[in-house]
Amino acid sequence: MDARFTAEQDEIRRTLRELLHKRCGSEELRAAVDTPAGHDPALWTALADRLGLPGLALPQAYGGVGCSATELALACEETGRVLAPSPLLATAVLTAPVLLALGTAAQRADLLPRLASGRLTAALAVPGTALTTALALTGGNGGDWAGGGRVGGVQARRTEDGWRLYGQAGQVLDGHGAGLLLVAAHTGGFARSRVLLFLVPGGAAGLVRTRQTALDATRPQGRVQLRDVKAELLGEEGADVLPALARTGDTAAAVLAAEAVGAADRVLERTVEYAGQREQFGRPIGSFQAVQHRLADVYVRLQAARSAAYYAAWATAHTEERVGGLALAQALEALRTAAAEAIQVHGGIGFTWEHDAHLYLKRAAGDELLFGPAHRLRAYAADAAHLFGAGGEAV
């Protein structure tokens, strides 16, 4: 295994960092999250047209760049550094891989080129707080998480003119503004209970969407209500959607780990810089050994998380291992530690709305709520690997 980056990978990172430095500073970030969409459409267009970011990991046959999840993870590491709000995660990481894996030839030919070009954005709508369950990150996804029984979640029923959906999904990333919704729904009643995925256009009759107030404003979320909405089944009716969701979950976890590493790296950089400027007792606080030790601990955590994230991204394309959840757990902890130390070192100003430190802390906490927490990610990975016996002892 050659761990060095290729010239193409280095170019992706360099070009993206330059673009985001110019177009996604602190002021631009704050202005973008306050818009109804929750992101800057002009920045999204630039990311799509100049860098092909939405289609980075899609095949060239569908208008994509044809790269792997490794390149997508490296790109998200750069977007994570500036906490760039965009539909990239919902569209390219969570939705497009499922469409590619399960869609019919006609569905792929119609939707994937538009997703790759950035003209169409998409969101994966999962009921309640079951996103990590659906993606098989914190537990098996074989249960009734989409809405078991006859009530709750999202239900699907077949009619003479096709499928109809009714129910609600909250905390849907970019669910309030995505042009296409990929909705997980329960069907079959008690006897033949199963989960299917459905395509719902953003302007469908009976679809009501509302942007939610989220802890992390850089990850806009929406509540999706389906009131007898006509929907198109994704793929063939007999297809098993659960393995495809699990594979997508592992890749998404690796990409999210890289994104968290990027955020932790940037907040540590800013903290070290400030520690060299802020003076106490007539000298910079960065010269005190206690501060140095704390920041050194953050650096060690960051480098370990970066190595885990890079390996997890590489493993999605080259091995059968599913280590994305473990990498994500380590990256989330590194980001939380880096953000907490940033606020501590910055002192009183670190708690204020005017400073960006709180944005990184909210990203860390918000991602743990959406995709974790870290101890559950590790616990499920241990169970899947049969690491512990029935008595809780190592085997």
TrEMBL record:
Superkingdom of this protein's organism: Bacteria
Domain Acyl-CoA dehydrogenase/oxidase C-terminal positions: 254-382
GO molecular function: oxidoreductase activity
E.C. numbers: 1.-.-.-
One Pfam assignment: Acyl-CoA_dh_1
UniProt keyword list: FAD, Flavoprotein, Oxidoreductase
Keyword Acetylation: no
Requisite cofactors: FAD
Organism annotation: Streptomyces bullii
Protein name (database record): Acyl-CoA dehydrogenase family protein
Domain Acyl-CoA dehydrogenase/oxidase N-terminal positions: 6-118
GTP-binding in keyword set: no
Protein family: Belongs to the acyl-CoA dehydrogenase family.
